[in-house]
Every structure is written in C-alpha cells, then in structure tokens.
Design brief:
mainly alpha, 2 domains, 8 helices
Length: about 210
C-alpha cells in the first residue's frame, strides 16, 4: 500500500503542471498579503487622525492633566503622543505612502520620546537622540524621497536572511536546523512581499 502511494506521488510531482500551480499559488499569496497591507497602511487614519476636531478634543483633555502629577503622567504622555502623531499625519496627508512611513517608522518613537521627557526617569540625552531619528525620517518625507525607504526595506529583508544563513552554518542540531530552515523560507517570502510592496506602495503614491 505504501509503495502504491509513493508511486502515485512520484507520478504527480513529475507533472510540470503541479509546479506551475504551486508558483501561481505562491504569487497569489504574495499579492493578497500586499493588498491587505495597502488597504490598512493609510486608510485607518483617514477618518480621525488628521481631523482638526479630534485633535482639538485631545488638546482640551490634555489641559486638564498635570505631567508633574504621578497619577496623571501616563495619561498625559499617551494623549500628548496621540496629538503629536495626529498633527504629523495632518501635515503629510498629501500622500498615503507618507502616512504609512510615519506609522511604521515614527509613531513608535513618539511615545518613547515623551516618556523620557515627562516620565519618572527623565533623560534629555535620549530625548535628543530620538528627535534626531524622527527628524531624519521627516527630512526624507519632505524631500519626497520614497526610494530611500524602498531601499531600506530591501536591505532589512536581505540582512535578516543573511543572519539566518549564518546561524544555519553554525548549527548542527537537526531540530534547530529545521527551525532555521523554516525561518529562512518565511524570511524569503517576506522579502518577496517587500519587493512587491515597494513597487506598489511607493511608485503608485509618490
């Protein structure tokens, strides 16, 4: 019985059509992932994040809080961060790719910066360092330099694959090797998705 199944599988995988079908399915998965990413990269902000009424309501709430008061400081930081992010979105709403970049590369920094500025463990050096990171991204946005971010995406994907391959060469454990192999395949898929995303996200919205 096992030989019969084995023979049937051999017959199936000898057919060129099975490989064509697999490639089509792979490309379809990449396409669907990219479309899902585009659909969510900027549209979620269109309704409120750069709406002036929303920003004003946050400003009113911020005025009721005292950053020097321990019970207020966390809420103060969160609301201030939301205001700053919303204002930044409003300033760059001329292109959805800019909103995506702000969300991906600046938003995580804003709360961190405000935490170092108003939190219990204040650190002016960290605030300055984060401001430099944010300003570097904003400078590229002002220059409409979408190619910079496209190249950055590919570099990060390639670096991840390189790191995984190095780990593979230094490992002999079968279980670990299988795990790394799986991660490499995932990383290669993500790289291809990134390449397709770059062409769509930046060239359409630039």
């Amino acid at each position: 019985m096992s030989n019969l199944i084995k023979n049937e599988l051999i017959k199936i995988f000898k057919k060129k059509t099975i490989y064509i079908t697999m490639v089509i399915i792979f490309l379809l998965l990449i396409f669907m992932n990219c479309m899902f990413k585009y659909a969510n990269s900027g549209s979620e902000y269109n309704y409120y994040l750069y709406n002036e009424e929303y920003i004003e309501s946050l400003r009113g709430e911020l005025e009721t809080l005292n950053p020097d008061k321990p019970s207020d400081v966390t809420t103060y930081i969160n609301i201030l961060s939301e205001i700053q992010l919303s204002e930044m979105m409003q300033e760059h709403k001329d292109a959805e790719w800019k909103l995506a970049i702000i969300n991906e590369r600046i938003a995580p920094y804003i709360t961190e910066r405000n935490t170092y500025q108003y939190g219990a463990e204040k650190n002016e050096a960290q605030v300055e360092s984060i401001n430099q990171e944010i300003n570097a991204v904003l400078e590229k946005l002002e220059e409409n330099d979408w190619k910079y971010f496209a190249k950055l995406d590919l570099e990060q994907a390639n670096k991840q694959i390189e790191t995984l391959n190095e780990q593979k060469e230094q490992t002999e454990d079968t279980a670990v090797l299988n795990s790394i192999e799986a991660e490499i395949k995932t990383a290669e898929t993500e790289k291809e998705i990134a390449r397709v995303s770059i062409r769509q996200k930046y060239t359409i919205w630039k």
